[in-house]
Amino acid sequence: MKVREAAVAGQFYPASAETIEEMFSYYNELLEKHIDKTLLETKSRAVIVPHAGYIYSGFTANIAYRILANSGLKRVVVIGPSHRVYFLGSSIGDFEYFETPFGDLKCDSAFVNELMQKFNLKFFPDAHHEHSTEVQMPFIKKYLNAEVVEVVYGDENPANLVPVIEFALNDDLTGVIISTDLSHFYDIEKAKELDNICIDAVVKLDPDELHKGCEACGKIGIEAMLMAAKNLNLKPLVLDYRTSADASGDRSQVVGYLSAAFL
After folding, report:
1. What pLDDT score was predicted for residue 1?
2. What is the C-alpha separation between 191 and 188, in angstroms, rounded?
3. Which of 92, 113, 120, 217 has its CA 20 to 30 A from that of 158?
């Protein structure tokens, strides 16, 4: 049995299911106190989510997963950038299961094979110790329990990911999760200036805007999602934006986090 073993449990998120459950419950208490409940009834099958440690970005991601859960998805394609290894193109995870603290998630092997054949995607095992995708899996197991497909990209042309996203979203039971953080380690004023470029690009569905100063580590994935959204006539909805300063209090070196949905 080919299992994608957890590589960052206990680092980016707790290794204990009970502790993660407590975090999710806390996020949901905050949501239900401070967010318009009609927002949580929104349906979407495509989202942008952050991938930092849960104590920093978990609340922002949680909103997106609450919304994804409204769509009854059978599978999700999780697309994130490689931070550990450099390679050309994109790698699709050829696994049977993905390990999470909540139990193993089933990978959709048939869909993986279909994407491999249709889009000439390869499997580079070294690319799949990646936190940008892994931190999404406990959310998926908890809120969706859908089968998963993991795509990690390296030096990639966003245009090559667009048909993969469109193919996935053409199936009403399939969702797409684009993983990215925004700017890294600027003071809070500079971070917000740079992050607003990324957010404006999402709001306007304007991929060109991303190249005017957006420093998201997953900019390639965002750009591909915006191009696909335009082609599919989807409308963007920003769900949450904050920085690591909201959790740490340190405003001198922050990381930005965004969640957004496409309707």
Report:
1. 72
2. 5
3. 113
| Residue positions counted in the chain | 263
Q: Which of 95, 123, 99 is nearest to 107 (CA)?
A: 95
Both tokens of 48, joined, read 């942008």
Q: What is the pLDDT of residues 16-58, one digit of tens each?
A: 999 999 999 999 999 988 888 888 899 999 999 999 999 999 9
Which candidate, 4, 31, 36, places its Cα nearest to that of 100?
Answer: 4
Q: What is the pTM of this model?
A: 0.97
Counts of helices then strands in the chain (DSSP H, E): 9, 11
Distance in Å from the first CA to the final CA of the chain: 37
Of 146, 75, 159, nearest to 119 (Cα)? 159
* Chain centroid, CA 88 distance in Å: 21
What distance in Å separates the CA atoms of residue 33 and residue 47, rounded to the nearest whole number?
Answer: 23
* 3-state DSSP assignment of residue 67: helix
Q: What is the DSSP string of 35-48?
A: S-TTGGG---SEEE
